[in-house]
Write a structure and sequence with these properties.
This protein has about 325 residues and is α/β, with parallel strands linked by helices. It has a domain of about 200 residues: Rossmann fold (3-Layer(aba) Sandwich), CATH 3.40.50. Helices cover about 35% and strands about 20% of the residues. The chain is built from eleven helices and 14 strands. A seven-stranded parallel sheet has the order 3-2-1-4-5-7-11, sandwiched between helices. A three-stranded mixed sheet has the order 8-10-12. Helix 1 packs across helix 7, helix 4 packs parallel to helix 5 and helix 6 crosses helix 9. It is globular and about 55 Å long.
């Protein structure tokens, strides 16, 4: 294990950061987070007592702040982004300047020996070929503005000689900065609160991964950096390439009163439809620790605490 790294994380108070930051601090690293607290979250309250944690309130597009805090970083993790198709469509300028341009600016300031590990979305695969797995060599065909900005950002990261890209499946699970608008989280919320959901294009498939396994993938990339650098890796559950209908069937196995049906008209604005191979990251020794069933059970418990819809990126 690599000890005592200085890790700089932009957007570290978000859904993923609220799990990743405490994990890295527990590993013994010094973590500095830059976040604008757009959602007024207090998701890092549990680490404020740690002398290994520092917090900067600001914008990841602020070149002065990036210059100040980047210079002492061994590892940089740019999480700051407008995450999800709806919020990017609502603020396209913000999406382009934060998701893409800020990453380009950050990469341009990195020293050769500074490491960067960035998450993007595997929705960059767009619409796959039926029955054929998307690998890291498959062509990228991003459909949404969100996916396009993240695919562009990946190019900048991999242009740096010490860069790794993690192409994340649809993330699920409870976190201190919760998101109810992610697909699994949303469907379980509806199953718990409404006991019903209407599906659009229920046959569309995608891959899934627990938020804690995403944090573990970042740990894995840090500790196996020389083996993995310069490459992109799919991060997902190899036994969870499921359609929306199949996902609802799995949720129903835990909540038998849950009812779901196909809408006779209408369409899903998020057109992604693909199955994904995670063999490349698994070949480096990484294996997810949390199943989809684990996440569903966890969410059912969590939604006993959550009773409104403020937990999202909308």
């Amino acid at each position: 294990m690599v000890d005592n790294l200085n890790i700089f994380i932009t957007g570290g108070a978000g859904y993923l950061g609220s799990i990743l930051v405490p994990t890295l601090i527990q590993d013994g690293h010094k973590v500095t987070v830059l976040d604008n607290f757009l959602y007024e979250q207090n998701s890092l309250g549990q680490v404020c007592s740690s002398h290994k944690f520092d917090l900067v309130c600001g914008d990841a597009r602020d070149e002065r702040l990036i210059d100040e805090y980047l210079k002492s970083a061994d590892v940089v993790i740019p999480l700051a982004a407008l995450v999800g198709a709806p919020i990017c469509d609502k603020d396209p300028t913000g999406a382009k300047t934060l998701n893409r341009d800020a990453v380009q600016m950050l990469v341009g300031k990195l020293a050769h020996d500074q490491k960067i590990i960035m998450p993007i979305t595997n929705s960059g695969y767009g619409i796959g070929t039926s029955g054929k797995y998307c690998t890291e060599n498959s062509p990228l065909n991003p459909i949404t503005l969100y996916a396009r900005t993240k695919v562009d950002a990946e190019k900048f990261v991999l242009s740096h000689q010490s860069g790794i890209s993690l192409r994340l499946a649809t993330v699920f699970g409870m976190a201190p900065r919760m998101r109810v608008d992610l697909l699994v989280n949303d469907f379980v919320y509806r199953a718990v609160k409404d006991r019903a959901v209407v599906l659009f294009e229920s046959q569309f498939k995608r891959n899934y991964i627990h938020v804690r396994d995403v944090a573990r993938a970042f740990q894995h990339a840090i500790y196996n950096f020389e083996l993995m650098k310069g490459e992109a890796y799919n991060i997902g559950l190899s036994n969870a390439n499921l359609s929306k209908w199949e996902l609802c069937e799995k949720i129903q196995s835990h909540l038998p009163n849950f009812v779901f049906m196909e809408a006779p008209i209408g369409e899903d604005p998020d057109k992604r439809d693909y199955i994904v191979s995670n063999e490349k990251i698994e070949a480096t020794g990484f294996k997810p620790a949390y199943t989809l069933d684990d996440g569903i059970v966890e969410l059912i418990k969590g939604y006993k605490m959550i009773r409104n819809s403020v937990y999202g990126n909308l």
